[in-house]
Amino acid sequence: MTFAWYGHLKYGHGWPLWKAILVSWAIALMEYCLAVPANRLGYAKFSGYQLKIIQEVITIVVFIGFATAFLKEKIAWNYLVAFACLGVAAFFAFAFKAPGPAA
Prior knowledge:
Layout: H1 2-6, H2 8-11, H3 17-42, H4 48-69, H5 77-95
Helix pairs in contact: 4-5
């Protein structure tokens, strides 16, 4: 998803918006095809909230590498602090037993 949503920032400046949208969605389709069954399988062990938090943490970790290597952006201290806060949020999401689904 990272490349689908942000890859055009480096290469697609000459593209019309409609082309950037179509290319991005074509790339993202494969990830959606994998994410839906992964969430169904994961829901047997994790809550919906926990699945979303896992997805966001993975996205942030991938994006840090993507922005640094592909977009050639430097990471600043304030971004590191923000990422650390997200890490703390993920800790709290998994540190305590989550309530079961509402009946």
